[in-house]
């Protein structure tokens, strides 16, 4: 037992590495309490009529993929399972629609959903607020008449039900928010407040406290509380995604740290007791 207090740091880090690899390969799916905020986010989407279209505001870059990517995947799972449709679009973040489109394409392939019918990627179309305001009147014109791959929008059945980003054709807006422009300074003032549709927000962890007043005031219809909220959302969907794996890894790492503290203290007191033995003192003398 006394040797625990003298354990080399490399064994500590090796143990951590083995634990995290094990959790990644074999998720433990620890019990998770669902917060009211996450439950409400789920309920808002569950309450949309079948066939409704959710606009996905792809306000993100490659660096935020691990943070908000699982949110996109989970929203796609719930939307497709309830017969809802998705449209990806962003006039500010040039890489966002490609990243988000790839995530949704993976879910669509797993669930047998068809591009152009159940979802579409309108891509990045520069122009910021001016482009978004034009999309309220004529989405095809704002998108330059083509999708993210350059195919004519007139060839996709979903576009017949989405001629404009307005109250009559949108069920909700799900906006990622990792910086500016994002949910509070772009999607809220330039779209959802103007056309009166629910704004669902998926922010990075550091933005959650700053966004809570928008939820409390009703300006955000619902919000996932960062990576923790994403993991809870996956739990509600009975789906193990990237957020669940990350949450399991963080929890197991914390438990491992507590275990090391306990063992380290046991080793310290065991060695202290060993040194205090009379025979040990005489041997040293």
Unreliable sequence segments = none
Task: Tell how many strands the DSSP assignment holds.
Answer: 6
CATH architecture of the largest domain: 3-Layer(aba) Sandwich
* Domains, number: 2
Order of helices and strands: HHEHEHEHHEHEHEHHH
Biggest beta sheet attributes: 6 strands, parallel
What fold name stands as the CATH topology of the largest domain?
Rossmann fold
Structure class: alpha/beta
Shape: elongated
Instruction: Record the strand order, biggest sheet.
Output: 3-2-1-4-5-6
Provide the gyration radius in Å.
25 Å
- Under CATH at level 1, the class of the largest domain stands as Alpha Beta
- Average pLDDT, all residues: 87
**Annotation field: number of helices:** 11
Beta-strand content bin: 5-15%
């Amino acid at each position: 037992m006394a040797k625990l207090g003298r354990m080399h740091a490399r064994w500590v880090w090796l143990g951590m590495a083995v634990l995290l690899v094990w959790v990644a390969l074999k998720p433990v799916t620890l019990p998770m309490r669902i917060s009211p905020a996450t439950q409400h986010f789920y309920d808002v989407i569950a309450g949309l009529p079948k066939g409704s279209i959710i606009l996905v505001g792809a306000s993100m870059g490659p660096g935020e993929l691990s943070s908000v990517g699982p949110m996109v995947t989970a929203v796609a799972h719930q939307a497709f399972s309830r017969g809802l449709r998705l449209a990806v679009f962003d006039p500010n973040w040039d890489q966002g629609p490609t990243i988000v489109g790839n995530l949704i394409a993976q879910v669509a392939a797993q669930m047998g959903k068809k591009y152009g019918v159940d979802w579409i990627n309108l891509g990045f179309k520069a122009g910021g607020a001016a482009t978004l305001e034009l999309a309220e009147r004529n989405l095809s014109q704002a998108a330059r008449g083509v999708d993210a791959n350059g195919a004519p929008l007139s060839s996709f059945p979903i576009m017949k039900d989405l001629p404009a980003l307005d109250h009559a054709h949108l069920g909700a807006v799900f906006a990622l928010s990792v910086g500016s422009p994002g949910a509070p300074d772009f999607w809220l003032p330039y779209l959802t407040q103007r056309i009166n549709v629910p704004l669902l927000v998926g922010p990075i962890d550091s933005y959650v406290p700053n966004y809570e007043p928008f939820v409390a005031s009703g300006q955000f219809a619902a919000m996932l509380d960062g990576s923790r909220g994403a993991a809870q959302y996956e739990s509600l969907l009975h789906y193990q995604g990237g957020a669940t794996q990350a949450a399991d890894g963080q929890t197991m790492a914390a438990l491992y740290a507590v275990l090391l503290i306990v063992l380290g203290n046991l080793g310290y007191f065991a060695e202290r007791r060993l040194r205090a033995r009379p025979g040990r003192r005489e041997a040293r003398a």
